[in-house]
Design brief:
The complex is a heterodimer. By secondary structure, chain A is α/β, with parallel strands linked by helices. Chain A has 12 helices and 15 strands. Chain B is of the alpha/beta class. Classes of the chains: A alpha/beta, B alpha/beta. The interface between A and B is large, with 40 and 43 residues.
């Protein structure tokens, strides 16, 4: 008797196994809600229903240094947009704790439970590769504001970014540095254990080759290293015109300090990760002469930039950084896409985000093509007297 | 079913799978922290073999990846285990962490893994798929618990020395748990890759290991569903905090940390402690049952079962035992007495295989006394023993302690239990009957479901004897069984030992209670400074002037003052 019931159970389990192991093919949900489309167009557009915007940032753990700024920049923008009237936004902000599972779970919540119109974030490209495939298959437009790795917009037609890819920023900073410093021979130091910096390293070497600049020292280190004397010793042995660094803020601060302590006077050139007032504060005098390529500068005279900086500083009692500026811009880009057809449905936002042309933002004129990639002129800055100055 | 929560609930399943890979080593008392390395290896290898299209139209291709991942994880664990399993405790932990780091660095620098940039694959793992894997794992562990293998795991965890004396092959059991852990970690790696659709070497870092360990310990490794409880708890706590309106940020980890601390402090067996009272209490078998069959008959009375020639043991310059010539014949009760430090325990440790002699030779039940092979070989040949200081399995019930004793005389039941074969059930019943019979023999049947810690000292000694008897020994070695017993208990014990001898069990026992020794044994050996100074009929030996002088003192032994020297 027992054998009979258990074999029945086994049979049922096998049947379940067979069905559940199947791959489900659910298409994107393209139903639209008429209450989310309104009357008027552009500036005049009014939508009755509150538009839900989702955002996933790393507010705790490793990437919180960026996530906090992004949250504040985005909240400031949503506040301004709501004050402007016509469309009311409700911002639903999720923390992914700088973990992959946190990020995917947050995306699920925003997509399926909160049913947002669009999602901004996540903070890190590593998570975006996983979460954006979910957004794509659910048919929810997602806009990256700090995801600079290669291959992000290619995930699908619902995926966009307003963050200049690392290669573009570096491609701008290396020629600019070459022009200013007359670089012939450089040392390249990079963090080989982090995907962001490893990807940037590939860009750096390609760009240096294009510019006919010789790499005389090529050294790598790990994300959590704190002692760089071995790598910097090799730099000291050679006469280099500049040191090009691809590192996260955690390693950048001790590395630059140790380089200056060891007597390396050559200018240090870096990418997006350098672009933060916090970094300059932490480095103190050692920051002098750093060359940074990025998407935004406090010194840029772009439309609304001065107002943004003063509003941000007044609200949060600290200066904004690039992360804040890009998140702030992201909200305006989505607003722009909604106003284009005065429709906050996911499909409409997707169609119009890919049509944004030369939108006049605090980052300068910014465009997003149908493939989801951003076009924007990067800014190259040098730190002089403790402040970012455009090179 | 769980609309809008599928991803969240699937992450619980993934967390549980990772925790199971820790569960299986913790069950056997090993602290292995190499799981991230096994998972990483398996995930990367799986990307090479998993097809990019669904199988037969709609079957998830991960079905190919799971066995491959399990095999890669198990093979890696086996290879790593050979050198590192010699280590214990924190040293094993460090050795396995080193392996995990090696894998991470290797994957970071290999070409085919695309280095730190990682790989992207299709998200083939669905909600149902993940939970079926968890269900299969839970089933495997559910069936493992009350099987011979499961008891061996528990015995090794509680006390390796006692486990090996009960016939458990400790090295093999540790390796089995370690390899199983590698296999489950491998499955986790594959599931992870095809659930998140992306792997980088940094994904499988030390943090992942810590997460798995916390989940396993939090859930509790003494019951089969502990990992699911642990994973569910850790996933639910932040969600509940969200639901009650606690703001994210530093408060979440703080509250989670405090809850973790509370569980560890107040529920030492993890969350599963809460379910402990639901445990089924096994009932005593019918009194009218027939005695367990299939036990080998004991050798005929008078057969030689052990022979030692010139046996000696030196610890460096200290000669604990020297030049011992001794024969043990079936059916006798051989008492060994001698002052403290005379070498009595060293002698029985050699006879039971726990220590190898440094000189001379010997054979016990056909097993040569030698440095290699492990004590379990002696137990399987029919030597069973108790220890001077009780070595009971503290977290097992009295009955389960005795059940471990049946290890040497029962067959492995785990694989047959998985298939619900009636023969496994018969074998388990037989082991249970054997264990109950021993509990009744020593008078502990009414305390079968207590833990050893709840027993009086005398009862603990009797429990140890019951456990040793459950192995159906040819030679039973008792190391000071009456220590801590009062006169009445010692007299009862003496009666029990004589009864065993009548049943044909050969007993070798060390005892300081001279009156009991003289009442019980048929032959007496006296050791002093590692040498035999007298041997023979108990009353004659006791009267030997050399013994009286060396050990008993010069007073008349009829005086009665020497009962407790």
């Amino acid at each position: 008797m027992r054998l009979k019931t258990s074999s029945g159970a086994a049979l049922a389990a096998a049947a379940l196994l067979a069905t559940a192991a199947c791959v489900s093919e659910t298409g994107a949900d393209t139903t639209s809600d008429s209450a989310l489309s309104g009357a008027g167009a552009g500036e005049e557009c009014t939508i009755d229903e509150t538009v839900k915007l989702g955002a996933v940032f790393s507010l705790t753990e490793a990437a919180a240094f960026a996530g906090e700024y992004q949250k504040q920049g985005l909240e400031l923008a949503v506040e301004e947009l709501n004050a402007a009237g016509g469309i009311q936004y409700e911002l639903i902000l999720e923390d992914d704790g700088t973990t992959l599972d946190g990020s995917t779970v947050a995306f699920e919540k925003l997509i399926n439970r909160d049913e947002v119109s669009a999602i901004i974030g996540p903070t890190l490209s590593g998570m975006a590769f996983s979460t954006y495939t979910d957004a794509q298959s659910a048919g929810v437009p997602a806009l990256g504001v700090s995801t600079t790795a290669e291959g992000i917009p290619e995930i699908g037609d619902y995926i966009f970014r307003a963050s200049v890819p690392e290669q573009v920023a570096l491609a701008a900073s290396i020629p600019a540095a070459k022009a200013t410093l007359d670089m012939q021979k450089v040392a390249v130091l990079h963090d080989s254990a982090d995907e962001f910096t490893a990807s940037a390293y590939n860009t750096i070497t390609d760009e240096l080759r294009d510019q006919n600049i010789e790499i005389v020292v090529d050294e790598s280190f790990g994300t959590t290293d704190t002692d760089f004397s071995a790598q910097l010793g090799k730099v000291l042995e050679e006469e280099v015109d500049a040191v090009i660094l691809s590192a996260l803020p955690g390693a950048t601060v001790p590395l630059v300090k140790q380089a200056r302590d060891l007597g390396i006077t050559a200018p240090i050139v870096g990418g997006n990760a350098f672009n933060s007032p916090v970094l300059v504060g932490a480095l103190g005098d050692a920051a002098e002469g750093l060359i940074v390529g990025g998407a935004w500068s406090a010194a840029s005279e772009t439309t609304g930039n001065a107002e943004f900086i003063s509003a941000f500083t007044a609200k949060y009692d600290r200066e904004p950084d690039q992360f804040a500026a890009q998140a702030y811009t992201g909200a305006y880009l989505i607003d722009q896409a909604i106003r284009a057809d005065c429709d906050a449905n996911r499909e409409s936002i997707k169609d119009n985000l890919g049509q944004i042309l030369e939108f006049d933002s605090i980052l300068g004129p910014i465009s997003i093509d149908e493939g989801g990639e951003v076009t924007q002129t990067p800014v190259v800055q040098i730190i002089r007297d403790g402040a970012f100055t455009i090179l | 079913m769980f609309a809008g929560y599928e991803t969240l609930i699937t992450t619980i399943a993934l967390g549980a799978i990772l925790a199971y890979s820790f569960h299986v080593v913790l069950m056997a008392g090993q602290l292995s922290l190499g799981q991230a390395g096994f998972a990483s290896l398996a995930a990367y290898v799986a990307t090479l073999v998993v097809p990019t299209e669904p199988l037969f139209g709609s079957l998830s291709p991960v079905i190919v990846g799971l066995p491959v991942g399990a095999a890669v994880g198990a093979a890696a664990a086996f290879l790593v285990g050979m050198p590192v399993l010699r280590l214990r405790g924190v040293f094993l932990a460090i050795g396995t962490i080193a392996f995990g780091e090696m894998v991470r660095v290797f994957m970071n620098n290999a070409e085919w893994t695309n280095g730190a940039l990682g790989m992207r694959v299709e998200k083939w793992v669905t909600f149902d798929f993940a939970w079926i894997v968890v269900a299969v794992l839970a089933y495997l562990f559910w069936r493992l618990g009350p099987s011979r293998t499961g008891r061996a795991f528990a015995a090794v965890r509680e006390d390796e020395l006692a486990a090996s004396s009960m016939g458990v092959n400790v090295v093999r059991t540790r390796m089995l748990s370690f390899t199983a852990s590698g296999a489950i970690a491998g499955v986790y790696g594959v599931m992870f890759a095809y659930f998140y659709g992306r792997i980088t070497p940094a994904t499988f870092d030390f943090g992942l290991t810590v997460d798995g360990l916390i989940t396993a310990v939090l859930g509790g490794y003494l019951v089969f569903f502990g990992p699911i409880l642990g994973s569910g708890f850790l996933t639910a706590v932040p969600e509940i905090q969200d639901a009650v309106g606690l703001e994210a940020g530093w408060i979440h980890p703080l509250v989670t940390g405090l809850l973790l601390l509370a569980v560890i402090l107040f529920l030492p067996g993890g969350l599963s402690t809460i379910f402990n009272r639901l445990r089924r209490v096994p009932a005593a078998p019918d009194p009218g049952r027939t005695p367990p069959d299939g036990l080998d008959p004991l050798p005929d009375r008078g057969t030689e079962i052990a022979r030692l020639r010139g046996l000696g043991k030196a610890y460096g310059a200290v000669q604990a035992v020297r030049d011992i010539d001794l024969e043990i014949r079936s059916g006798e009760v051989l008492g060994v007495i001698g002052p403290n430090g005379a070498g009595k325990t060293t002698l029985v440790n050699m006879i039971s295989g726990l220590e190898a002699p440094t000189s001379g030779e010997g054979e016990v039940l056909g097993v040569r006394l030698a440095a290699t092979g492990g004590a379990h070989r002696f137990a399987q040949a029919g030597v069973s023993r108790t220890f001077q200081h009780s070595k009971l399995f503290d977290r097992l019930t009295v009955l389960d302690n005795v059940l471990v004793g049946t290890h040497a005389v029962s067959k492995s039941t785990y694989l047959r239990r998985l298939l619900w074969l009636p023969s496994a059930r018969r074998d388990e019943r037989r082991a249970l009957a054997l264990a109950w019979a021993q509990l009744e023999r020593v008078g502990l049947a009414d305390r079968a479901n207590l833990r050893p810690g709840a027993l009086s000292y005398g009862d603990q000694r009797r429990l140890e004897i019951a456990r040793a008897l459950a192995a159906h020994p040819t030679l039973l070695i008792l190391d000071e069984p009456a220590a801590g017993m009062n006169h009445v208990e010692a007299a009862e014990l003496s009666g029990l030992i004589r009864g065993l001898a009548e049943d044909g069990v050969t007993v070798l026992f060390i005892e300081h209670n001279v009156k009991m020794v003289l009442d019980t044994c048929t032959r007496l050996v006296v050791l002093n400074f590692g040498e035999v100074i007298a041997e023979g009929d108990p009353s004659e030996v006791a009267a030997d002037p050399a013994v009286v002088e060396a050990y008993l003192g010069t007073e008349d032994i009829e005086d009665g003052e020497v009962e407790h020297v």
